[in-house]
Amino acid sequence: MPDPESSLLLLQPTLEAKQLPAGFSIKQSNPIKLSVVIVNYRQWKYTEQLVRKLGQCELVRNGQAEIIVIDNNSSYHPAIRRLRSKPYVSLRRWTKNRGFSCAVNEGCKLSSGDWVLILNPDITPENNFLDNIDSYLNANNLHQSKVGVIGFGLRNPDGSVQGSTGPFPTFMGTLARKFLPRAWRKYSLHKNDEAQKVDWITGCCMLAQRSCLEKLKKFDTDYFLYYEDVDLCKRIAKAGYDVCYEPSLAVVHHAPIHVRRVPPRLRVITRQALMTYARKHWSKNES
Questions:
Q1: Are β-strands 34-40 and 65-71 bridged in parallel, bridged antiparallel, or unpaired?
Q2: In the chain, how many domains are there?
């Protein structure tokens, strides 16, 4: 668990007035349907691009969607002022990197929508992505349903399919998957084009029903980074909720871990996360 003193926010005053662009209006009286939570860590360029894209959605323009950005102690960047000037964005900066789980939980705490969309900064959504999500939820009567979280299709920049769902890891399964390419060690190897119930979905693009998140006390902060999404889906399933995958709505994920050089420290964090998951969810014989 992080030091409680590190949870203090850098609540810097917003000096610039939040002026709307020409032709842009927000109806403040509308209730928030959808809250977007973005955790930034040294990715201000990606974060600003993502916020700009989401800001074009009618749900944002109508005041029915909000964007919460939590920064895990990145260096100052001019994008901070620009983001804070947007009336639909709430940006909080921390004095310490407290990890992904803590940041998402803080974003959820600051938001008010019935559904919470968690997005990595290096995501490029399709046009009208938030509007399409709202239409999807309404068409399938998913409000107040037993659907806990929904994952959407991930694409590589070249348009090819990227892994986004997987089976719950077991000891033997983890050993066997070590022989697979990095891109598929955690993920399901087939049926990426079918809507279905799955074990878990990646947290880089995860839509969660707030009532479910609140019941389960959100992400487990014992995970600094990685496997927090698998853990959440495991607890969601145990609580009787469904984890669903809907590939008809898709985003581009630019920099998944399997295409990057993984520094030694990140390897340690990943292995620690798996060990934490094993301790919490594997049988004594497995762990």
A1: parallel
A2: 1
